[in-house]
Amino acid sequence: MNGGILFLAHRQPFPPNRGDSIRSWNILKALAKLAPVHLVSFADSDPETQQALDQVCASAHLIRDQKGKTTAMAAALLSGRPASVEMFSSPTFQAAVDLVLNEHDIATVYAFSGQMGQYVGDLPSSIRFVMDFTDVDSEKFASYGRMAVGVAGLANRFEARRLRAFELQVAKRADINLFVSKTEEQMFRRVAGNGNVPLGVLENGVDLDRFSPGHGLCDNIDRDTPLIVFTGQMDYPPNVGAASFFAREVLPIVRDRQADARFAIVGRAPTEDVRQLAELPGVIVTGEVPDTRPWLASARVVVAPLRIARGIQNKVLEAMASGKAVVASPEAAEGIDACNGKEILIAGSAAAQADAIISLLHDPVRRERMELAARAAMEARYSWDAKMAPLAAFVFPSNERVAA
User: 199: which strand partners?
Assistant: First the structure.
């Protein structure tokens, strides 16, 4: 019988309604099949969330004293640590971690997201440390720094340097460091240089039952409308940038050749910049919706025009599983095992994306072939059960360490 697992998360795994929580929820469920799981997570939850987690976990400690951005930035100036790490620094969280380690037989600590590495100190040799970075977050801030100008660019480049040093410190302590794709793993390997840092890949899957063809359409969208859909958390900067880029630069080209085309931005917490996009011709901003699937079902084409993207985009997997033709930027398609031109269309510039979309809108036969191929690709390669199969070897290896 395996000892227990302490699972640390920067955001509650349930409900699985955004990229990181979709991954953490499915990992949590897979781990619970291996051993009792004790969760310590930051949360802004309600009783239903606690109940759902209690059904999966042996114990679930939800901590609600996460710092705000301003407080975290001030703390970072004093501590010298990355602001994105300080945001998740909490004595209450540390106390909950210590409580679980003291009261339960823990064989493995599974830290989900780099920020949780701060809670894994010196462990007894009998306890394994699995660090699931998912993405190389320091490279995300470096990308922000390259794209931003002035103070914002400087701040992001500074954060990237501090966070890279923190990630390396954590990685050297871990028994295995996991990433969501081979691309992210190779990126971290370059950052780590020749250091003896064990790395592995644990890819994301998609819920093939929930996201499937044939879902009901949106009531307020005419089925004859050439609808283009983009989904995501709409206060997340890469999504904000992608929506703005598409609405301002791609959609006008599309509408010059398909005048009735409309672009729906579907996702919770749209920023003021995103809400203002609804003033542009053909743009719909929904805000939070109870279910994204009717919007996907109503779409002729789903787009993922991100210019900054890390890891594997769940929004792309969900659209393809729903049997939709997807036009994605190279950044959004990175790490996804799909054949360009058959199962997905990859296009970078505004003109190239518009050409790809028009080709699908004007050629229903080609679009249908791509829809069928996209679904088949997800069925063949992206079930959660298949993607979680390597997890047991990472958490409870037969030898002392998992080889890099």
Answer: 177
